[in-house]
Design brief:
270 residues; mainly alpha; 2 domains; two-stranded antiparallel sheet; 1% strand
Amino acid sequence: MSLLPALATNLPAAVLSGMAALAYAVLAWAHPRMSVPQSRGLLALAWLLHLVVLLLSLFEQPARFGFAPALSVTAWLVLTVYLVESRLYPQLRARWTLAVLGTVVVLLALVFPGTPYPALRSALMPLHWALGIASYGLIAAAVAHAWLMQRAEKAMRLGTSTGNAMPLLTLERLTFRFVAAGFALLSATLLAGWYFSETLNHRWVWDHKTTFSVLSWLTMGVLLWGRWRLGWRGRVAVRTLYLGAGFLLLGYVGSRFVLEVLLQRAQIPT
């Protein structure tokens, strides 16, 4: 679907998407000149507009979903985690990066609204999708914390770390908590996918999405085992996390991107 027809079919969502993207972009551009309360308030406003856009998409007829909406929901979940944690840990400083991320994903979802599907093959399919997106969000939050951890470690090595910086051990602990939670939800997602595959197709379908999702699950499992038994931390742990998150990104978002953008093939989401 081209951009102009997509905008015309849901003008309120398009306008709100533009407002959310603008709010994120203004924060990314002006945050060095803004006070902490001002930047937090603008981020909260962009987050709220983003939420309204996502809620409107739930009631769109026909319903749509694809790689860009999946990225949009994932980024919104990461922002939700950040807004909560920044209250608990005021030392967290990632507003500029998250604002840029928010701008990009909102505009992507506006340009690529996804594939329409008229009916569900099972009334429980939304549960499978919700588990998958939640696992995306938690693992993305783990990646964000791992990036902050690397940045804090580099500042310590260079001697540029400030006294009010986020403690490295706290970042590491939060990172693995999100990894564990994401791994649990990813396990539930794969189990639900196996159930629906057996119920609807009478066999386990090894497509690109399933293969990369299983590879991500195995990588995250190895990471948690290495942390528990071998005490993995630092670069080894972070690189393993990035690898597992990369597999997961290729699983749904990557395969849908190829179908929707590169091949321009309409297909009912599964």
